[in-house]
Every structure is written in structure tokens, then in C-alpha cells.
Amino acid sequence: MADGTLVTLTRHLIEEQRRFPESRGEFSNMFLDLTLALKIISREVMKAGLVNILGETPDTNIQGETVMKLDRFADDRIFKAMDHGGHLCCMASEECENLIKIPSRFRKGDYVLVFDPLDGSSNIDKNVSIGTIFAIFKRVTEPGGDGTLEDALQPGHKQVAAGYCIFGSSTMLVYTTGQGVHGFTLDPSVGEFLLSHENIQCPEKGTIYSINEGNSLFWDQGTKDFVNFLKEQDKETGRPYSHRYIGSLVADFHRNLLAGGVFIYPTDFKNPRRPRPKLRLLYEAAPLAFIAEQAGGKASTGEKRIMDLTPTTLHERVPLVIGSRWEVEKYEEFYRKAKAQSE
Ligand code: AHM
Ligand code: MG
């Protein structure tokens, strides 16, 4: 922290827990299990290029096991860190088609973990920032048994925690439990996440927009109009905006969260008979929406608040407009107008 006080993530979680005297510490313990997996993933990501963990070709290690691609590795680490703690009743991952069960030999807990183990896969072997995104829900089915789809398919506003870990120039964990957004930077020499960004606030308005411009032909009219608006010159509203696009959601979101601005991944109309949003609601859009809102920002599909959507399947996709409040609301205005004109 700026005043030199050292606060570890563990200490921060304990302090947060004190605010809930009835808490048995189950949540904090679960969260710490998850951070172990994140540290291991960070270690491997930092070694990428030196050890043979990149690319599509499977190699074999000295135990004769297949060396996994990093996203598979990350998925496996999170599962192995979380399956036996007794805190979870099920999990869901971008890497797994179906709900992930807790092995029968382990106790089933009250929480559900959903995650994208390594988002920004196309950047993994180019040394560009990537990240893990996660959300935690309380189960809705009876305690004790296996979790079900009903436990995982909950709307964003039911999240009890959400966060991401960005593997960039440093490794940072950003999370919320609905009491603000806090960022911790990993000190690799001591293996601890230390509080570096307390109570993050997303600027009300920024100067950056992030969207894959190469897809502009396939955007809906509202998105086209909005992006054109951002490129116009207007001193009062700080236009034209700068365009910044990494192609890793976590990295693009993180920058805009701190600096202000908007990230947009609209529905792709390349095939007008089969319009296709790209990002997944449950473990990409909703967790980041929770963080954005907690930091004073906003997240929308253009028409609806992301946090209000209930996924009907684990891998359901949604258009995502997220970041500073001013830009997201402006986008909604353009979107509504273009839609009304087309009807
Ligand atoms: P992934 O989950 O397969 O990595 O895909 C999600 C990623 C996001 O990180 C990023 O915002 C987006 O895909 C980039 O897509 P595009 O390359 O179409 O711009
Ligand atoms: Mg992803």
C-alpha cells in the first residue's frame, strides 16, 4: 500500500470475515484454496517459453504423462485445488462441456465455483497478458448432496464473490464480495498476494474504447453508430477516444477499470441468419459485471443489465458492453435508437 503497510490477502479475508460474526470461515478457506491454484498457474505462465508448455503439440514429461497446453493445465490445477476442500458442491469451467462433479470420496459443501481457467487463449504463446476469471455462488439445492445445474445456472446478482487474476507484467488478483473491489499484487519472492489497489473505483468516464475493429462490418447498427460517435471530435466530451484492444478480456477490462473507458464485444452478424455473441455469460461476463458495478461502473448487453441475466446453459454467450458508466449508458442510448429505427 502507498503508506507502506503490508496487508496479505489472507489478512484481508480475515478482516472481511470479522464483519460477519456468524461466518465459519468456510468462504475464506475456499478462497485461499483458489489462490493456491492461481499462484501455480502464474508460476507456469511465467515459465512459458522456457519449458515446453506452449502450443498445440502434446509432449511427454519424465513421468510419461502428456504435457498439457496452458489452458488445460490451468483448468486441471483449479480442479485439483478445489475438489477436496469440502467447500464446493460442483464447479463449471470453460474447458468442460458439462457440470464438474466433486469426486464421491470428498465432502460436498455449500458453494459453487465457475471459472474460465485461462482467458485469452489465442494470446498464450505470444507473451501477451492473459487471465483467469471466476465467480462463486451459494448453492440453492439441499446441502450435503452433489451440486446440480440449478446451483450453477444462477443470475449474476446472486454471485457471492467474483474476481480475476491477470498474468501480466506482474500477477494481480482483483476480487469483490460485494464490499468494493480490491486488488492484490503477487510478490513472487514470498509467494503472497499483497494489497496494492484498495477499493478500486472505475472512472465515471474515460478516453479509451476497446473492440475488435476488424469485425466492424459485422456489427449491429447501434455499435457502428456508437463507435463512429467516439471517433468524432468534440472537446467537451473528450472525443475522439483512443482505441486500445489486446484481445484478452481480462487485460482489456483491467486497463479500462483502472483508467476508465469501455470494452465492447457485440453480437457478430457475419452470418445474419445465425447472429453470434462470443463471450460467455456465466464465467466471463457476469463476474466482470459484478466487479464493474462494485467499482462504480456498468455492464450491459446493450439492452439489459448483465447481472440480471440467468444463464440457461453453462456456456451461453452474450454481447458485452462494460466499463465506465458514461460510455456504457451512451452505448445503450445508441443501441436503443438504432433498434427502434430498424423496427
Ligand atoms: P477464449 O475464452 O477462448 O480465450 O476467448 C475469449 C477471448 C477474450 O479474452 C477476448 O476478449 C476475446 O476472446 C477476443 O476475441 P477476438 O479475437 O475475436 O477479438
Ligand atoms: Mg474465455
Q: Can you give a write-up of this model?
A:
- The protein has 343 residues and is α+β, with helices and mostly antiparallel strands.
- The protein has 2 domains: 9-197, Fructose-1,6-Bisphosphatase, subunit A, domain 1 (Fructose-1,6-Bisphosphatase, Chain A, domain 1), CATH 3.30.540.10; 208-342, D-Maltodextrin-Binding Protein, domain 2.
- It has helices at residues 9-18, 26-47, 70-82, 149-152, 221-231, 249-259, 281-294, 325-342, and strands at residues 59-60, 66-67, 88-93, 100-101, 111-119, 130-138, 159-167, 171-176, 181-187, 192-197, 208-210, 242-243, 262-265, 279-280, 298-300, 317-318, 320-323.
- It has an 8-stranded mixed β-sheet with strand order 4-3-5-6-7-8-9-10, sandwiched between helices.
- The radius of gyration is 20 Å and the shape is globular.
- The site of 2,5-anhydro-1,6-di-O-phosphono-D-mannitol (AHM) has 12 residues, from strand 5.
